[in-house]
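Give me structure tokens for this 201-residue protein.
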Amino acid sequence: MRTAGLFAFVLIASLVGCGGRAIVAGHAFFPNGGVTGGLSSGDWGDGSSGPSGMQLGCIAGRRFALYVTAHNGTARTITVTDGGGEQPFAKIMDRVAVQVRLAPAPPGGDLAIPGLDAWSRESATPTKVPPGRDVGIQSNYVMRNCELLRPHESVTLNRSVTITYRDGGTTARQPISVRGARIILTRPPQRTPDLTAEARR
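Here you go.
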């Protein structure tokens, strides 16, 4: 009986978010394929980018921003409050901040508009997303400890970013996954500059 009671307590605690509200699995948004990445260069060990992701060279202290969009598929206005998610390789490439904002409406209904802003450590600001509009999600990364990658080894990051949103009185979390936004991180074969001091600013 004590074991069952403890299990019930843990289960309830895992479902309760800030303010004592339950956090449910969300389904309000779906990715629409929009991806914009920061600067890249072959001199940094970067490779090609395409539908399967973007190849980046790891340089200690390097900053990189990545922007994806997701579509509000409901008939309601949704308030996106935060972003984040699991980071299995945070010691090498750490998502230090996520911003969310209402993506610009395409002028002709079918033309994508890049929405990437400058790299930032600012926290997300609650953003209202009307029905039929897109939310822009910008992940801001810093690379560190590139020596943990062996030569010719690669790891895949940013498989998804999880957004938290309010829909009426319900708080929900939903992972957004865009295959083209995956980061395939490698250790450049040539010697590259150390940007660690710059990343602290």
